[in-house]
Design a protein that fits this description.
Blueprint lengths: L25 E4 L8 E7 L2 E11 L13 E8 L15 H14 L12 E10 L4 H15 L9 E8 L2 E4 L3 H6 L2 E7 L4 E7 L5 H36 L24
Parallel strand pairs: 4-5
Antiparallel strand pairs: 1-2, 2-3, 3-5, 6-7, 6-8, 8-9
Length: 265
């Protein structure tokens, strides 16, 4: 049975008033939360998550210690009030564990773990509200929290969800759209245009994959600019609070076209 709500009307508008390729509003809060070394609250539309990063620090269990690099530990918790079904998810929930494993595998090749042998980086993700695009929001929030914690990375990781309604591609899906159309979540590194994640839970026609990848790459660059702007604003406020003045180039960090070249490892 199809959805009672029209996904895309004849005028080219979706159920929430957006166009096909239009992204939802993104807001970022990088202020300190608790004792975390770095944290970020990110909102994509009505989906909101809090990401807290601790470390690098000594691993709690010797079995998790790696002699040549840091171990990345990811835990995802879903608040009971975050959805309409009010079902409490335990830490052993299968879907939650799968999402944590996906996020870990996404960031392992990006974080420069070789700089911190015999240590552990803990990433705790709390889902506060969800209305589609949950995985992309968690990945984007994790990127910001890691940068806020000062953990070196090869590049940003920017994720977006795409789908196809009939023959029309859509970006940044809501929960209604995710439940009704085939969709895929793609995470890219904008500086190198490398893909770090592609995950699908539904079937997507092979003829549509190339177009979705192209649109996701373009959307990733837009999200990348929003992230850089948030980080630049946070950096400026921190430096100003220390009485050192505004760092050169921090105010227009979000407007710069190119990233600073990072060392290759």
């Amino acid at each position: 049975m199809g959805s009672r709500v029209e996904i895309l009307n004849d005028g080219g508008f979706r159920s929430d008033g957006r166009r096909q390729y239009e992204l939802r509003d993104v807001s970022v809060d990088l202020s300190q939360h608790g004792q975390a070394d770095g944290s970020a609250v990110i909102t994509h539309g009505l989906t909101q998550v809090l990401v807290s990063v601790f470390g690098p620090r000594e691993a709690k269990m010797r079995s998790q210690t790696m002699h040549n690099r840091a171990n990345i530990n990811v835990e995802v918790a879903v608040a009971t009030f975050s959805t309409g079904e009010r079902r409490k998810r335990s830490r052993g929930d299968k879907r939650t564990l799968e999402m944590a494993a996906t996020i870990k595998s996404t960031f392992e090749p990006v974080i420069q773990t070789n700089l911190y042998p015999r240590s552990q980086i803990d990433i705790f993700i709390q889902v506060l509200q969800q209305d589609g695009g949950l995985l992309q929001t968690c990945i984007n929030g994790t990127t910001l929290a890691l940068i806020n914690a000062g953990i070196p990375m090869l590049d940003f990781v920017c994720a977006v969800t795409g789908g196809v309604h009939a023959t029309s591609p859509l970006l940044d899906l809501t929960l209604l759209e995710e439940n009704d159309i085939p969709n895929v979540t793609i995470a890219i590194m904008p500086r190198t245009n490398k893909v770090t994640l592609v995950t699908m839970e539904t079937r997507l026609h092979v003829d549509r994959v190339a177009e979705i990848f192209r649109l996701a790459a373009e959307a990733g660059s837009v999200i990348h600019k929003e992230m850089k702007a948030a980080i630049g604003s946070r950096t400026s406020s921190l430096v100003a609070s220390m009485g050192l003045g505004t760092p050169k180039g921090a105010d227009n960090m979000g407007d710069r076209g190119d990233d600073v070249q990072m060392d290759e490892y």
